[in-house]
Amino acid sequence: MPATVEVCILAGGLSTRMGRAKARLRLGNRTLLGCVRRNAAALGLPVRVIRKDLVRRCGPLGGLYSALKTTRAFAVLFLPCDMPFISAPSLRRCLSVFDGQRPVFALSRGQPAFPIILPVAVLPIVKSQIDAGRFALHQLARATAARRVRLPARDLFNVNTPDDLAKARKRQQTQ
To answer: 155 near 94, Cβ under 8 Å?
Structure first.
Protein backbone atom coordinates (compact mmCIF):
# COMPACT_ATOMS: atom_id res chain seq x y z
CA MET A 1 0.00 0.00 0.00
CA PRO A 2 2.57 2.71 0.92
CA ALA A 3 4.19 2.52 -2.53
CA THR A 4 0.95 3.86 -4.04
CA VAL A 5 0.56 6.77 -1.63
CA GLU A 6 2.10 10.21 -1.97
CA VAL A 7 2.21 12.99 0.62
CA CYS A 8 0.84 16.41 -0.29
CA ILE A 9 1.43 19.39 1.95
CA LEU A 10 -1.20 22.08 1.55
CA ALA A 11 0.34 25.55 1.45
CA GLY A 12 -2.15 27.51 -0.64
CA GLY A 13 -4.37 28.98 2.05
CA LEU A 14 -5.04 32.66 2.63
CA SER A 15 -3.58 32.72 6.18
CA THR A 16 -6.16 35.33 7.20
CA ARG A 17 -5.86 34.74 10.94
CA MET A 18 -2.07 34.93 10.77
CA GLY A 19 -2.00 37.95 8.49
CA ARG A 20 0.86 36.57 6.37
CA ALA A 21 1.81 33.35 4.59
CA LYS A 22 2.19 30.62 7.21
CA ALA A 23 4.37 28.35 5.09
CA ARG A 24 7.27 30.84 5.25
CA LEU A 25 7.11 31.57 8.98
CA ARG A 26 10.25 30.53 10.84
CA LEU A 27 10.28 28.00 13.63
CA GLY A 28 13.88 27.73 14.70
CA ASN A 29 16.10 27.22 11.67
CA ARG A 30 13.25 25.97 9.45
CA THR A 31 10.05 27.36 8.04
CA LEU A 32 6.75 25.81 9.10
CA LEU A 33 6.61 24.18 5.67
CA GLY A 34 10.16 22.89 6.14
CA CYS A 35 9.23 21.30 9.47
CA VAL A 36 6.26 19.48 7.94
CA ARG A 37 8.25 18.45 4.86
CA ARG A 38 11.07 17.00 7.06
CA ASN A 39 8.58 14.95 9.08
CA ALA A 40 6.77 13.73 5.96
CA ALA A 41 10.05 12.79 4.26
CA ALA A 42 10.75 10.34 7.10
CA LEU A 43 8.05 8.10 5.58
CA GLY A 44 10.07 7.51 2.44
CA LEU A 45 7.09 8.42 0.24
CA PRO A 46 7.03 11.01 -2.53
CA VAL A 47 6.27 14.46 -1.09
CA ARG A 48 4.98 17.48 -2.96
CA VAL A 49 3.59 20.87 -1.98
CA ILE A 50 0.29 22.24 -3.26
CA ARG A 51 0.70 26.02 -3.37
CA LYS A 52 -2.14 26.96 -5.73
CA ASP A 53 -5.60 25.49 -5.63
CA LEU A 54 -7.38 24.65 -8.87
CA VAL A 55 -10.60 25.78 -7.17
CA ARG A 56 -10.04 28.82 -4.99
CA ARG A 57 -11.75 30.14 -1.89
CA CYS A 58 -13.11 26.84 -0.61
CA GLY A 59 -10.71 26.24 2.25
CA PRO A 60 -8.70 23.05 2.44
CA LEU A 61 -11.04 21.29 0.02
CA GLY A 62 -9.46 23.32 -2.80
CA GLY A 63 -6.08 21.83 -1.95
CA LEU A 64 -7.49 18.33 -1.57
CA TYR A 65 -9.19 18.60 -4.95
CA SER A 66 -6.04 20.01 -6.61
CA ALA A 67 -3.83 17.21 -5.31
CA LEU A 68 -6.27 14.42 -6.13
CA LYS A 69 -6.82 15.82 -9.62
CA THR A 70 -3.08 15.95 -10.38
CA THR A 71 -1.66 12.92 -8.57
CA ARG A 72 -0.35 9.77 -10.19
CA ALA A 73 -0.67 7.86 -6.92
CA PHE A 74 -3.57 5.71 -5.81
CA ALA A 75 -4.07 7.78 -2.65
CA VAL A 76 -2.80 10.95 -1.02
CA LEU A 77 -1.79 11.61 2.57
CA PHE A 78 -2.59 15.28 3.22
CA LEU A 79 -0.84 17.53 5.69
CA PRO A 80 -1.29 21.25 6.26
CA CYS A 81 1.83 23.43 6.17
CA ASP A 82 0.99 24.74 9.65
CA MET A 83 1.29 21.46 11.61
CA PRO A 84 5.03 21.53 12.48
CA PHE A 85 4.97 18.86 15.20
CA ILE A 86 3.29 16.05 13.28
CA SER A 87 5.48 13.01 13.79
CA ALA A 88 6.45 10.19 11.48
CA PRO A 89 5.02 7.62 13.95
CA SER A 90 1.64 9.38 13.83
CA LEU A 91 1.75 9.44 10.04
CA ARG A 92 2.63 5.74 10.00
CA ARG A 93 -0.33 5.13 12.31
CA CYS A 94 -2.64 6.82 9.76
CA LEU A 95 -1.18 4.70 6.97
CA SER A 96 -1.68 1.53 9.02
CA VAL A 97 -5.40 2.32 9.36
CA PHE A 98 -5.85 3.01 5.64
CA ASP A 99 -7.41 -0.03 3.95
CA GLY A 100 -7.02 1.27 0.40
CA GLN A 101 -10.67 2.23 0.08
CA ARG A 102 -12.07 4.26 2.94
CA PRO A 103 -10.53 7.66 3.66
CA VAL A 104 -8.81 8.23 6.99
CA PHE A 105 -9.08 11.41 9.07
CA ALA A 106 -7.31 12.17 12.32
CA LEU A 107 -9.53 13.23 15.20
CA SER A 108 -8.86 16.58 16.82
CA ARG A 109 -11.11 17.57 19.70
CA GLY A 110 -13.61 14.99 18.50
CA GLN A 111 -13.77 16.38 14.94
CA PRO A 112 -12.24 15.03 11.72
CA ALA A 113 -8.99 16.86 10.96
CA PHE A 114 -5.56 16.55 9.34
CA PRO A 115 -3.71 14.30 8.62
CA ILE A 116 -6.11 12.93 6.02
CA ILE A 117 -5.68 10.06 3.59
CA LEU A 118 -7.93 10.07 0.52
CA PRO A 119 -7.96 7.55 -2.29
CA VAL A 120 -8.24 9.19 -5.72
CA ALA A 121 -11.61 7.43 -6.12
CA VAL A 122 -13.21 10.03 -3.80
CA LEU A 123 -12.36 12.91 -6.18
CA PRO A 124 -16.00 13.14 -7.43
CA ILE A 125 -17.20 13.41 -3.81
CA VAL A 126 -14.72 16.18 -3.06
CA LYS A 127 -15.87 18.02 -6.19
CA SER A 128 -19.54 17.62 -5.27
CA GLN A 129 -18.83 18.97 -1.77
CA ILE A 130 -17.16 22.03 -3.32
CA ASP A 131 -19.99 22.52 -5.82
CA ALA A 132 -22.52 22.37 -2.97
CA GLY A 133 -20.56 24.86 -0.85
CA ARG A 134 -19.87 22.25 1.85
CA PHE A 135 -16.26 23.09 2.65
CA ALA A 136 -15.95 21.68 6.17
CA LEU A 137 -13.73 18.66 6.71
CA HIS A 138 -16.33 16.98 8.93
CA GLN A 139 -18.80 17.15 6.04
CA LEU A 140 -16.29 15.46 3.72
CA ALA A 141 -15.53 12.81 6.35
CA ARG A 142 -19.24 12.06 6.66
CA ALA A 143 -19.82 12.03 2.88
CA THR A 144 -16.98 9.54 2.37
CA ALA A 145 -17.73 7.31 5.39
CA ALA A 146 -14.17 7.93 6.51
CA ARG A 147 -12.38 6.01 9.21
CA ARG A 148 -11.02 8.02 12.11
CA VAL A 149 -7.75 7.63 13.93
CA ARG A 150 -6.73 9.10 17.26
CA LEU A 151 -3.30 10.66 17.37
CA PRO A 152 -1.46 12.43 20.18
CA ALA A 153 -2.79 15.98 20.59
CA ARG A 154 0.78 17.32 20.69
CA ASP A 155 1.26 16.15 17.08
CA LEU A 156 -1.88 17.92 15.85
CA PHE A 157 -0.99 21.43 17.03
CA ASN A 158 -1.77 23.98 14.27
CA VAL A 159 -0.18 27.39 13.92
CA ASN A 160 -3.07 29.64 12.88
CA THR A 161 -2.45 32.89 14.76
CA PRO A 162 0.53 34.92 16.00
CA ASP A 163 -0.22 33.58 19.50
CA ASP A 164 -0.05 30.00 18.17
CA LEU A 165 3.31 30.79 16.58
CA ALA A 166 4.62 32.09 19.90
CA LYS A 167 3.44 28.87 21.60
CA ALA A 168 5.12 26.75 18.92
CA ARG A 169 8.40 28.63 19.33
CA LYS A 170 8.27 28.19 23.10
CA ARG A 171 7.49 24.48 22.70
CA GLN A 172 10.36 24.01 20.29
CA GLN A 173 12.80 25.61 22.75
CA THR A 174 11.82 23.12 25.45
CA GLN A 175 12.19 20.05 23.25
So the answer is: no
**Stretches in the chain below the pLDDT threshold 70:** 1-3, 13-20
Indicate the number of domains in the chain. Answer: 1
Contact 85, 15 (CB under 8 A): no
pLDDT single digits (tens) 104-126 = 999 988 899 999 999 999 999 99
Cut 0.90: pTM above it: yes
Question: What pLDDT does residue 123 have?
Answer: 98
Angle at 50 between CA 48 and CA 53, to 5 degrees: 155
* Residue-number span of the structural domain to which 66 is assigned: 2-174
Query: What's the rounded Cα separation, in Å, for the pair 82 and 12?
Result: 11
